[in-house]
Specification:
The structure is a single chain. By secondary structure, the protein is mainly alpha-helical. The protein is built from 8 helices and 2 strands.
């Protein structure tokens, strides 16, 4: 079997250096005509996993703040709610920082990480979006377009995620500002709080947005595993070590 020299990244060695599971090592490709690509840089991968952890912490602590169901019939630990809120605020700060990194990487990243590759802003992406949906519904699986980076349906889902992130951040800061009327966060969020009908509406919107971060990861994980199994796409490997093997005999829309 011959492995052609890839167009993205150096040629991989024939086998990994370590017999253990070496994160970042390049394994021998599966049988067939494959080549190695590296679509995801280290900043994006670190941001992905840090954001995922921050979101998990935010969801758990947020539901606790909304309804402290962990409290028993006895007296709770002293200042428990205060500690939970502190963890929530710290995780929120980390989440905002990952968002800032992602915005910067929309312009500083490679061709698969930049703005045109993440948002369906081109005509071809909207045309391929319909084909991609038919592929997932098993209507015309043989006609699915091939992407190294995000396919149009992924682009649309990530666009939605970023919009929801902005809303959940702003509503979160609006509620945070209620603790200090006249403070910075109160001042910048209060006009919109009043415009939408008050802080209770803000709280409801914040809560509803959180459900997207519960539903989306389920779909995301399923589709990643599905691609690994049905297409041998290597997406899971890519988000861990930055690269994966793709079929060398296929044409890729975003290359």
């Amino acid at each position: 079997m011959t492995v052609p020299t890839p167009r993205h990244g150096p040629a991989p060695p024939p086998m990994a250096d370590s017999p253990l599971f070496p994160l970042g090592a390049r394994f021998a490709p599966p049988s067939g005509n494959y080549r190695w690509v590296e679509p995801w840089g280290a900043p994006l991968r670190v941001m992905h996993w840090v954001a995922a952890l921050a979101i998990l912490v935010l969801i758990v602590t947020g539901f606790y703040i909304g309804r402290p169901y962990f409290m028993t019939t006895g007296a709770p630990p002293q200042y428990l709610m205060g500690y939970i809120r502190l963890i929530h605020y710290v995780a929120a700060g980390v989440f905002v920082m990952t968002g800032l990194v992602r915005v910067y990487w929309l312009f500083a990243g490679n061709q698969f990480e930049r703005l045109p590759a993440l948002f369906p802003i081109r005509k071809r992406d909207w045309v391929n979006l319909v084909t991609q949906v038919k592929y997932y519904l098993m209507i015309h699986p043989e006609r699915a377009p091939h992407y190294i980076g995000h396919n149009p349906l992924q682009q649309l889902s990530y666009t939605t995620t970023y919009v929801v992130s902005i809303v959940v951040m702003f509503t979160g800061f609006a509620m945070y500002g209620q603790a200090a009327p006249g403070g910075f966060f109160y001042t910048i969020t209060q006009p919109l709080t009043l415009a939408v009908g008050g802080i209770q509406v803000v709280r409801l919107v914040h809560h509803l947005c959180v459900w997207w971060f519960i539903i989306f990861p389920i779909m995301h994980i399923y589709l990643v595993i599905r691609k690994e199994v049905t297409e041998r796409g290597g997406g899971l490997s890519g988000i861990i070590n930055g690269g994966h093997y793709i079929r060398a005999d296929k044409q890729y829309v975003d290359e």
